[in-house]
Amino acid sequence: MAPETPPPQVSVVLPVFNEEGNLHRLMEELLPVIRGLGRSFEILFVDDGSRDRSPEILAGIAAAHPEVVLWRLDRNHGLSSALDAGFRSARGEFIVTLDADLQNDPRDIPRLFALLSEHDMVCGWRRERRDPWVKRASSRIANAWRNRRTGESVHDITCPLKVFRASIVPHLPPYNGMHRFYPTLARMAGFRVVEVPVAHRERASGSSKYGIWNRLWKGLSDLRTVRWMQRNRLTYRKERLP
Hints:
By secondary structure, the protein is an alpha/beta fold. It contains 7 helices and 7 strands.
């Protein structure tokens, strides 16, 4: 029997939904960066029920790169499900996540990764966003309201580019919409969270999958759930007596 392969140190989780025009370039940019970390790694693509050529392209990428693992959801469930599926399949001690639309720059990853020596989750902040004004405005409103209601001071809580310890994953509830609150949920569980500015680029190909309704109003509705969790979480400490 062949010896069991040790788990990789780093897992890169990439949710995909109809991104056929971006996948090859994404791999060209991402692979040198991840290899440069000097740690063993895996790259997990989670196809969220794509209806374009993404599944075919991903199959070709996986055939050419043994570090790539493919997962496909039974239908389009949304970003929360795709991320959760990737996180709970990841084997690495550290998780990197970014979108497959090339708006995140993979070259920012080493800078975020280096901060894990003092933090548990490092979140990107798209300080100069290259999105249409409607998308920027809805995000500013949603971020400001989330911060006011949760006591946070995060500028860009939904930035897809994050690097964090896998030990955080069990504290991320598997419910739709919770990806909008990962930094808050991690901090509630006692983890150290920091936010740093990162580059942001215009979309190279395809179109955004999220509009005003599913970015703003759904997020504000989910905020009530997170507020309930904050108010009712257990905060006791125990001590074993002699």
